Amino acid sequence: MTIKTQLLSFFEQGVVEAGCDEAGRGCLAGPVVAAAVILPADFAHPVLNDSKKINEKNRYLLREEIEKTAISYAIGIIDNKGVDELNILKASIMAMHKALDSLKILPDHVIIDGNKFIKYKNIPHQCIVKGDSKYYSIAAASILAKTYRDDIMNDLHQKHPEYNWKRNKGYPTKEHRRAIKEFGTTPFHRMTFRLLDEQLTLDLN
User: Fold this and answer.
1) pLDDT recorded at residue 193
2) What is the CATH architecture of 17-151?
3) Please, which residues bridge with residue 32 across strands?
4) Is the pLDDT of residue 201 over 70?
């Protein structure tokens, strides 16, 4: 890992602060997965950044470091049926709440990647656009959310290899949409999402 980064260690000084992020919002299949991470107040890392800026091998190496170093971390998952029932924004926030529920320590403050959140247990929070490239705890949460979700999609690939989820992870690639057109949907697809390009049609009966 050679990329050099310098993120901020905290937003609110002198409190226990958790960073939250999610993975899988734009996918056509699979769950939305969130992570919450509390890092030591003096935490710094030369490489840790937004998971989208780091390759797969290095994401998993960073996951090991994060899990060893974090004061507490947890994962929250809302499956595709929950996404369909709640809508993707609320499902993403509920996944973050589930992750926060599972932390060993209740944080004093929460910082979230993005611009929308629903207050958690009356704990003060701050939404930060592109927070995963600004704060270590959010970047750490982005790494955990992405890698844990990738693990789930790799497992689901074994059940439905025709969609090649080990490669596209359920995102709306041309390959994935072609497979939906050819093979139809699975119990893991999000039925409220536009599963095909507009020029294609899908018989869901």
Assistant:
1) 95
2) 2-Layer Sandwich (3.30)
3) 78
4) no
